Amino acid sequence: MTVRRDALATALGAVHERVDTAMRRAERVDDVVLVVVTKYFPASDVEVLASLGVTDIGENRAQEVGEKIPVVAARPHLTVHFVGQLQTNKATAAARLVDVVQSVDRARLARALDSAAAQVGRVLDVTVQVRLDADPGRGGVAPEGARELADLVAGCASLRLRGVMAVAPLGEDPRSAFGRLRAVADTVREDHPDAEWMSAGMSGDLEYAIAEGATHLRVGSAILGSRPSQR
Ligand SMILES: *Cc1c(COP(=O)(O)O)cnc(C)c1O
User: Fold this and answer.
1) From ligand 1's centre to the CA of 86, what distance in Å?
2) Does 60 sit in the ligand 1 pocket, CB within 6 Å?
3) Mapping DSSP to helix (H, G, I), strand (E, B) and coil, where does residue 158 land?
């Protein structure tokens, strides 16, 4: 356990250093939120991360959230972000267990989350996931549809529109992809000035995301190591 704690502390420190350097290069003096993506890793890692000062974690499978988050919930407050593709029939579980759903990419899911959140008496923070490549299988609304979906989310009483999110496409310069996301984020902010979040940047491309104005990074393997399924 202390070995794991040391490893996580070292890796977390290295990521913070990358973030600080990138923020300086981008001449940014605002803050960026580091969401540590703990998917496939045990609740014990989440607890260690929380003790190291991590405030936000990300998960991408509803089932794992159901198993892990109740264990974590006994500990000091953490903001839990859902970042994976979410089936409509898992909306109730998500509304109960997470604080933020970053991956809202269709009207039906937004409506399901809205009524689920209303039922459990919560207001869920939401970002609209934008697709930056041509493959609809990877999730996200097409950039042209983002504004309309953002309007719909903003009109849901139990959802709070916070901004946009995206994953960089494979095989493309991440900087130009994040530039397109930034343009979508700007359009959404014209109608919804409070929707300030731009969630972009993972272990391999966080510097590009910071350069393009990301407010939230989602970093997994650079902190936790390669995921068990990838070993
Ligand atoms: C797994 C995941 C991440 C973290 O990816 P790493 O490359 O391990 O940093 C970020 N965003 C989403 C949506 C993910 O599913």
Assistant:
1) 15
2) yes
3) coil
